[in-house]
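## tool: complex_structure
## caller: assistant
## args:
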Amino acid sequence: MTAAIEAADLVKTYPGDVRALDGLGLEVQAGTIFGLLGPNGAGKSTTVKILTTLTRPDSGSAAVAGEDVLREPDRVRRAIGVVAQRSGVDPDATGRENLTLAGQLYGMSGGPLTEQVDALLERFGLADAGGRLARTYSGGMQRKLDVAMGLVHRPQVLFLDEPTTGLDPEARADMWQEISHLAAEEGLTILLTTHYLEEADRLARRLAIVDRGRVVASGTPEELKGQLRGDAVQIELAEAPTATPAGSHVVSPQDSAPTNGRATELLAGVEGLREVVLDGRSLRARADAGAVALPAALAALEGAGIAVASATVARPSLDDVYLRHTGRAFGGTDEPR
Amino acid sequence: MSSSALAPPWHMTQRKLRALLRQPWYLALTLVQPIIWLLLFGALFRRIIEIPGFHGGSYIDFLTPGIVVMTALFSSGWNGMGMLNDLDRGVLDRFLVSPVRRWPLIAGPLIQVAIVVVIQSLIVVALGLLVGATFPGGVRGVLVLVGVSVLLGAALAGISNGIALLARREETLIAAVNFIVLPLTFLSATFMQENLIPAWIREIARFNPVNWAVQAGRSALSASPDWGLVASRSAYLLALTVVCGWFATRAFQAYQRSI
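## result:
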């Protein structure tokens, strides 16, 4: 396996002492989807701008498709396709004209270009709309046209900067399918930035969590979640434990009423359960193997006469990973559902 | 043609022209406006020829080349707006991450301006003839007039695009263009014969590209053109156009450094 994208120690500052990148580095294996995950302003787009030769870093180095982005920007440009966050579709031209011009920029012409444009319009479901001005397209159609324009010259490496931001759930699902297809069937290397945890989880083989211009964690989604060591176990009690101090929701075992302490103590005594926390009627804990620990936990509660309403075991999510590595809850409030 | 070095600028020009043709109202107004100026200013200043010291001909004879130059100036000043739009929509960034060179990105809009200026100029000249102007310089004179107008328009379009890339704000571009266009028009012999304008304006006009174009065009259309003057003014304008085009092309670097 060779690296299709390599970046090391990238630093980029903007006037006003804004440090957009603070030593960011990453490596993407050829033919895989790599997710760059982080909230707005973390430095994802700046990284893409540097890797696609749009702007230069203050220091650091990067190579894409084996070419140095600073010394051989032209060679890099020939090897990459870019779908930026800001569309790039010319609204005053038709879909077909947009695609044709995109191909012409790479020196394509004549029959091969026409065939490629037709094929892309067909593939992205835009064949009927190809003759219409792009300003009449829906958001999802424009985004598809954007991706098609990034593919017209058959790049080796594709950059997708927040490809599904602002799309409705259906269009987002379409786009996900298309992106997976590109890497799986066509061997494209894809660097995808997103602030949707679910998107990174579903699409990326490896990902890096970016925070304040640095990579704070990287690995496969499974590895990252695995670092949390354990599943989340949640048990809802049928009744709130008695004598909860007024105004308090989170109750620690030390200062709570007897029943609270009881329930938490009972769970803490169950083998394999850690970090037991009571929150109102919910008991939360972590377990190396949640499915094994849960029956024991339920038995312990039942034996003490504490009624249980429901119980769940969940694999840790990237939300948890993000929280752990940045010390902050993930900012994205408009998570895809 | 697609494999030649001229393909990229042509593709950029094509894109601009197509967008222009899709705005029939804008296009119609662009073409009608110089007609209104010619008739309006022609009527307003008709009696200027009665001022002692104004020699020969009708005011329309005198005014027509001035309106041609002024039209070129006005229609090219706003060219940077297209660049701003491309910038806002991300179209420009897409061009910049492709292997296309920087100069065709400027050459495209400049060629589009040139084509519009040629058409506008011919319309004004035709209308001038229609309302009774006579141009002893003939076709050759008209070609010179159109040529210098194209150069002036391209130069200003270059400045306009450069400012758009540097300032990246519509307000700044509007203010800058207004600041340039109107003073340049009036600090020249566009409406008034050179020997009748105040000495200080005449001094300034010597360095005014609008005046270079008016002088060259008017002289070429006269019965006895001063070819030395025509050649020197055309050369100044050509140099200016090259400098402005270079400035606009360099402005991409400033833009890319800032993002």
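## assistant note: The interface with chain B takes residues 49, 52-56, 74, 77-78, 80, 82, 84-93, 97, 101-102, 104-107, 109-110, 133, 149 of chain A (CB under 8 Å). The first helix of chain A runs from residue 44 to 51. Handing back to user.
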